[in-house]
């Protein structure tokens, strides 16, 4: 089956010659969470989300610098009691905070960061804004101020810390701009078409994604927690399971050069035996999650993932760790370097146990 791709023009992205430089920062955050907390009925053996938490540095031609998310704060004992309690049975740790990563690199002063944008308020994304000077504003999504302020300790049951926003501008995005990109309400952050924030509700209060123009015609979609596994995005109508995947996700070791996996095998382990629907289409219920809204956000994301000119990077995609270049390098040349194609089907490695259970591959991993 030949692959086709969603046209970028069909996404309604306004044309612009202005681009931003984008770097992906490995925040050194490591998270292990039961996958069933996010996805209903995950495939056999796919029990745990074992992942990083990416941070994005965006630099505009105007000299503005923005961080999209901050990973996990290093001093987790400082979290509000409600958050500490929720983390008790999870593995969440980090080696450095993002401020330290930037200082160690030495190319930017912390005062050079104009804005910190939170995709949402969850602990593995908020980091520690207090490590940045008060000239750095904190940007949040719709409903944040009404639902989450003032924070702990003023509110003993607060979900964020007062120190996250104390003494700095706290700006809540209003998406009533009339601008839509794809099916997302959008806001042109720099006013020149180089970087957009997208209203992506469902996962949490005020959840946002972002779209960065890396060349005049190519983009990086910063997915935050719009979804937690690429099996929520792929396959799709415009990105079906191909006749074969090479290198094979089920080789031993995975992705061994020259290995090949037939697409028929990949369709066989699909819950619906489908080549054109994502493996995972239903999310689990959780406190603070609007499941219908979250599932609708994923459907909106799929249109971007189908485009050959948009590279979707979700915050917790561990398949990219040995594919892309990390900070201080930029990822603007992602298309030229073929990273989208290289990484597209790597998530299938997580389904090896399902394939083995169906007697489609040997337990050692070779089909």
Automatic annotation (TrEMBL):
GO terms for molecular function: hydrolase activity; metal ion binding. It comes from Trichoderma gamsii. This is Metallo-beta-lactamase domain-containing protein. InterPro entries: MBL_superfamily_lactonases, Metallo-B-lactamas, RibonucZ/Hydroxyglut_hydro. Residues 52-264 form the Metallo-beta-lactamase domain. SMART domains: Lactamase_B. Belongs to the metallo-beta-lactamase superfamily. The keyword Plastid does not apply. It holds the Pfam family Lactamase_B. Keywords: Hydrolase, Metal-binding, Zinc.
